[in-house]
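Journal club prep — side note

Before the paper discussion, L.F. wants everyone to see what a predicted structure for a comparable chain looks like in token form. Sequence:
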Amino acid sequence: MAIKYRGETFSGYNKPKATPSHPSKSHAVLAKVGKVIKLIRFGQKGAKGSPKGTKRNKAWRARHAKNIARGKLSAAYWAAKVKW
């Protein structure tokens, strides 16, 4: 089920994809919570995450904990899920 939104094609709601042609963000997701639909771009291009449990990973998650807790309509939630 391909979904077209603002000129981009997504494989479905809440399914992140890499965006190699975007100049600054590495991923995009068409997030949907209830009736709210939002295009979210997230992730610094070229940045690498760290495996779970490492000091770097824990520090990143602690720094962004409030934004991650906002849920599927926040970029930090998707960055934590996909990159970190």
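L.F.'s comment for the group: The chain has a mean pLDDT of 94. Keep this in mind when we get to the figures.
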